[in-house]
Amino acid sequence: MKKLLSLFLAAVILCGCPYFGVCAASISTEYESEDIFDALPVSGVTEMTGLPDINSKATVLMEQYSGEIIYKDNAEEHLPIASVTKIMSLILVMEAIENGQLTLETQVTASSHAASMGGSQIWLKEGEVMTVDELLRAVCVASANDATVALAEAVAGSEEGFVDKMNEKAAKLNMKNTSFKNASGLDEDNHYSSAFDVALMSRELLKHDLIKKYTCLWMDALRGGQSQLVNTNKLIRYYEGCTGLKTGTTSKAGSCLSASAQRDGLSLVCVVLGCSSSKDRFNAAAKMLDYGFCNYTYEQIDIEPELLNDVKVTKSVKGSVKTALSGSDKLLLKRGTKSKIEKKVNLPQSVEAPMLAGDMLGTVDFYLDGKKIGSAEICAAEDAKRLDFLTALSLLYKNLLLS
Predict the structure, then answer these.
(1) pLDDT digits (tens, 9 = 90+) for 353-386
(2) Residue 5 counted as domain residue
(3) Quick one: 177 and 203 in the same domain?
(4) Which of 95, 96, 127, 186 would bridge 102 by S-S if both were Cys, CB 3.0 to 4.6 A apart?
(5) Domain range for residue 151?
(6) Domains: count for the chain
(7) Pairing of strands 296-299, 311-314
(8) Strands of 223-330, DSSP E
């Protein structure tokens, strides 16, 4: 029964039913291949020592929380990114929700401009009303250009004003190789980004936990079930731990994808741009994610107690204070390298009172193959009050009595 349903839905999609959320006959549709419901190979890789062979014009594999680059190839080239553009649009919508400008229940009326968008769409009609929640589902699942523009107008009043905000946000994220000309990613002169910049904005979008409510949906429906949606990102269904994020397909951009996934506390973002087919982009991203999960892990680095020397304290009743590690973040390491980490403690010979427990005294830096990869703070483990006149007089008196 499930197989028959899939065949039926695929047939409706490929025939271009106007209320299905996509149209195969449209320009730049995300549903470019006939294998929309064909399964991808399920990732079962547990060991991968060498980099996989993939087919893309540019690739970046980034650890999400630290922003550390695990692998990059042609990461800075200006390339069209198609609907991957919508990642930036979604960032601005998430911010508008968080600052109270919009809610998920806010009703948005489609303008004639929004309704005129081509490519992947949900066929909004001018004057049609949908909530922000419904439009987000349309954008994140079906990559709907019309829904994206409707949200853009709700945030900024016009798509042009919204694009200005997109470029301002790109500058704040230090996206040096990006220029946005529209909100949806349709091919346009001087509309481009780079694999590295896409990874930066993907990382930023994933900071908004709400987005995963939408990017993790495989199938959904709008208009009371009349408009069926199927996620353009097949990894959502077939790749373990996948959390998103966004596909993109145009004649200029080729097949693009920013894919995010999380396993065992490790979160990765893989960007592949300019693949020759939809299947290539999914296979490339899956292989790169496999490489990351097989070869990298987070490790807590312990500090030997003998490295944490006491620190002399001047102008205090105490001659010194004990030290302690205030806590260090886990480090992203290639598997098998933890034992090779060198630690360099940086502590002053003395400090001046007063000193409170928890006050920072120095750092311990972590090095791997001569490169600094992280650090942790060293703090005072106890108070050291400043020596005042009365306390000094009292101590002098006691010493005289004892003598």
Answers:
(1) 888 999 999 999 999 999 999 999 999 999 988 8
(2) no
(3) yes
(4) 96
(5) 11-296
(6) 2
(7) unpaired
(8) 227-230, 242-250, 254-263, 266-275, 296-299, 311-314, 320-321, 323-325
